[in-house]
Amino acid sequence: MPSQTQLDSEEPFQISIPSSDLDTLKQRLELTRLAHEVDDAGWDYGVPLSEVQRLTAYWKDTFLPKWRDHEGKLNKDLGPQFTRDIEIDSGFGRINVHYVHRRSKVVDAVPLLFVHGWPGSVLEVKKILPLLVEESPDHPSFHVVAISLPGYGFSEAPQKKGFEAIHMAEVCNKLMLSLGYPEYVTQAGDVGSLVTRKIAQIYGPKHSKAWHTNSPIEQAGLERTMQFQKQGSGYFAQQSTKPQTLGYSLDDSPVGLLAWIYEKLVNWSDGYPWTEDEGKSLYPGSPLYFYFYGC
After folding, report:
1. Is the distance from CB of 292 to CB of 116 less than 8 angstroms?
2. What is the DSSP letter of 139?
């Protein structure tokens, strides 16, 4: 059962980036110093210089000046957002988490916990959210809870070593219980699917009734995984072994973070035709990104 603190600590939330941070971001973009690249490299060694130059210019001159418009639309599209304190066992104490909570008009709709991946955020649910909550004779309706995992977005990061998927699963389960959902289903991809799998293992079938993932294991996927291990897994080795060292650069350089994530955005989305504004607001290239990833 949720503690009294968890029951009482919910606070409404709206995305509202301080103007001073936007000014600092603009200054950093103006002072960007870009690395050179070898001739005819294309995407062989990472993001081409021309792509980074194009995205940086668009970010600084077009997207950033209209940030308040984008910010307002994000708040509208996501709907009700909240933060809440969750008490974690194993000595990690209390963590304040951010989440979207959109209830369907269908009273007996199915409670759904939506968990993002890396690189990702609650914005992953934005496009599908209206379809999930709507009343329709063609599909079930859902009460949707999309959590920002601890350390992502506007959720507080753990301050002690050893915080793993099992602890994220505990946070998610306690959040659903605190919202009055003793039974629920889950959807996740990427690292989120590791969390929801733990939820199914530990809290099913009493609380977690079904686990859905968009990261299935099948033959074509295994072949792509082998290719990924050869040519695309360097970031994982660094982030999973010495993340603190890398963090100094990504935390200090907006364009460095842009390039780091943009490479994954392109390579992992199966040729999805990203628009400029969509790519900027969902992943890298916006001030929101710095907040959704703690940078």
Report:
1. no
2. S
Pair type for strands 110-115 and 93-102: unpaired
Q: So what's the pLDDT on residue 230?
A: 84
- pTM score: 0.90
63-71 mean pLDDT: 89
Q: What's the confidence (pLDDT) of residue 283?
A: 45
Task: Check whether 175 has a pLDDT greater than 90.
Answer: yes
Give CA separation, 195 vs 115, 149, 155, 172, in Å: 8, 10, 16, 9
Sign of the alpha-carbon dihedral angle for 160, 164, 167, 171 = positive
Share of the chain residues as helix, strand and coil, in percent rounded to the nearest 5 = 50, 15, 35
pLDDT for res 70: 86
Average model confidence (pLDDT) for the chain? 88
**How many residues does this entry show for the chain?**
295
Pairing of strands 110-115, 184-188: parallel
What is the C-alpha R_g of the chain? 20
User: Among residues 234, 219, 220, which one has the least CA distance to residue 264?
Assistant: 234
Q: H or E element: which one contains 21?
A: helix 19-30
